[in-house]
Amino acid sequence: MIGMKEKKRERAEEIVLANERSLSTLARAITLSEGQFALILVRCNYECCKQPMWQQLQGLTGIALKQLVLQESSQTLYTVILDAIAKEDVSALLVFGLESVTAIDPVLISTNQVRDEFPKSFSFPIVLWVTDELLHKLARFAPDFKSWAATSIKFELATVELLDLWQHTTEELFTTLLEKSVGEFLSNEALKLSPGCQRRQELESALRDLQGRGVSLEPAHYATWQFILARDAFKHDLIEVALEQYQRSLDVWQQITCAVSDGTDQQLLERIGILQCHLGWCYCRQAQLHPSHKYRSWEKAREFWQAGIDAFTTAGRLDWVAHLTIQLGEVLQNLQNWADLQALALQSLAQSQTQDNAAQLPQAYGFLAAVALEESHWEDAKVFAQTALDILDQSQLCQPQHQGWYLLIRAKAQRQLGQSAAAIADLEAALKVEGLLPNAPHQSPQLYLDILQELRSLYFDHQKYLRAFELKQKQRSLEQQYGFFTFLGAAPLLSGRQDHQLSPLEIAAAGRLPDVNRLLERLSRNDHKLTVIHGSSGVGKSSLIHAGLVPALASRTISAREVIPVVQKVYSDWRGEFSRQLSHALDCTPNPSSDTALDPQPLNQLATCVNQLQQAADGNILIVLIFDQFEEFFFVCTELEQRRQFYEFLEHCLNLPFVKVILSLREDYLHYLLECERYTNLSAINNNILDRQLRYHLGDLSPGEAKNVISTLASGSQFKLDDALIDALVQDLASPTESVRLIELQVVGCNCKRKKLPLWRNTKP
Question: pTM for the complete prediction?
Fold first, then answer.
């Protein structure tokens, strides 16, 4: 032990001496470069090391040193330095903060491009402080600029300082979580500990430096590092990885606690409670991602949250006890353990702190309402739900999931009590609760679906079939969108939720991704001004456009131009509709006349649209006009003059630069397009609108493609099918033509026996 301490002391002395030599080297480099440009790179990975070195440097050089700290929003290096020295004489400039610049890659690239301007504008040495990672980026993105500098000068922290950095991180991390993350998951991004951020890079540098010196982290620091890594994994739904790392961290904290004489250290108990809380969240998320094993996951969540409640109770953190009690009740509800849920709610109400807890009190009554509803005590369920709503309203807390849930319970009770009108009113109100709407930040999709189902059933019972059908359509669409159910039935696929990335699973699995890529390639070519997509009814033309092509176009550039798709599929007032769609896509003020169904000057309106398209082209934008379900145009526009206006408009569009047109229609209506050639001059397409080079045929699926559709869609949803069933289904659908119609696949899949959906509770924090 004494030998180890001596080695650490010797190593610390070596680092101090190395830093002193580096400081002398830096001071000499600045002094020798006075009056001329020089680039000096100083490599230091720790913020706490920079200020002491800066202060000592001022005393060594004997010249005035100016300090410049770059902002995260900085867009260039050269102009920022130029602005900083505009009104004063500078002998030497020390630049800090480059590693924290958000757009660091473009900044370095632009710096490299203006490399030759530095010696022309700056007659003094520039000392650029960088980290190891930033030094690598300089070599990659600004190699010419970096060549101005000699070998970088390095400053390090002593081992004891590195361990102090980890100790400070551990204490600050758990203190912040205890105070600001009561019962809710606070991401590493919010704590400035996510991969890539400055603080995280310091920790990783400290790990590397300690490892290089043969020094291991203290057990508490190791547990903290595993905890941070687990939180990263949880954020990205790598649940198995997160569980393993959380468990490692918990094991270490429990071992440290056991080493304490009485085992009741408050700080250690709080940290154990936080780990158990995170493990509970992890298992609840696992239940969402793998519904076939959800009950086992919920049982594990129950186990950890109960242990967390015990730890926080012993530590005296009743705020955490209250919130974990709520989450434990939610898991008991998912497990349909009504006896334990009722006991938990009654126990919670009996505790004095519950009466002062604005979040826990209404939830306790909500649990009692759920139990009463399950036991067919309709009046009790209504009263408990009403009490929960009243308390929530008085507290003015923003809890949309809870409010929607209480309204649903009260509506179900009212329905059983014969109060259908009141039940409908409650459910309609629940659908409008802010935060429950689809794509809301904290939406609970299953609760929203349950409300839709109950409301649809009520409207159906009252013979309001149109409203019931509308709700059913919305319900099916959301089920498919959120992965609760694979097949949508006889309806086009939609692009995924707002948080989906390009190439939605639906279109990729539907075997149409090659078609999307081929269409993108056509649109990037100058010889394809017009594309006519055609195929039989139900082949998936609208799905291809809305779930595949439009999302792909909206996220890419073609010929260095931003691409803006404009989609139209309503033709009753095609001029007004097109004007609205174009103005919305370009984010400009719509033409006032576009709000009028019967425009007295339609040609002026179209001229305005053509002008908008021209302006967009001048603004480095490529417009793709997509007319979906175009056969409807011929149904609606029965007058020749109406159709001629469109043909003339099409002619203008095809003659505009950087405007592409797509017509999508059923192939049995292709010959209707020939009328266009008789009344307009389509020289841009050689007056041959049905040219084979312009048409893009969309056919049925092969058996292999159909199997891929089913397998991939099912794997990304909560609806699982055995391989043997998939093979049999494809075989039946493919007979006798050896091809599968996409609409038949959707309809048959939609009528397969649906698995019971999980309960509404969205327990991911």
Answer: 0.68
